Fold TetR family transcriptional regulator.
Amino acid sequence: MLPVDDPPSPPSPGRRRGRGRPSVIDSGAVAEAAFRLWREKGFADTSWADLAEATGVSARTLLRHFPTKADIAWIGVAHATDRLRDALEKTSAADSLADAIRAGVVSSVSHHPRVQRVNPAWLRLIADEPELVAMAPRAYRPWIDELAAFIGRRVPHAPPAICRALASTYQAAAFAALTEWADSGAIGDSADAVDAMLGWIDIRIPETPTRT
């Protein structure tokens, strides 16, 4: 749901692949530097050599981790999906479906200062850059699939199309909240903006299966 991932745990001593080649890179730092560069130079006009110079990571290593520049832009979705899954698993059956989803979605938003700092630039970029706009449905699919699967488990008689529609609605609402937060000056925690937005959503579950 957010552009960069939380800082990785430091690698254990000796975890290296090949001479002088680290097994991990700080992908969050790479994304932060990339967004700073894209803001100055433009997404399309930024080369891999430019990214290598800005990040301090060789172009070859960057390409090994990120097949396209767009993969850098959407790197945070996987970590947001992990946070969503963990939060949903902790919800109680006593919670209403709307409350459980709200808690999970809000928890999927990272509180890390790096993410909060970079997020406004990320939102502007993916709204304006055609390549990233086109990639959005595929990038968000794992997050939406995770939430749809949870809804299906909580409401077994709900058709899969309904579960996916609800999950997509929550993704769109969360993104709208983040966009408004960024456009308003990025004041406060972006997760609080998402929480306030989702407070407007409720779910009415039919007692009998719904036909689609």
The radius of gyration is 19 Å. The chain has two domains: 27-72, 76-198.
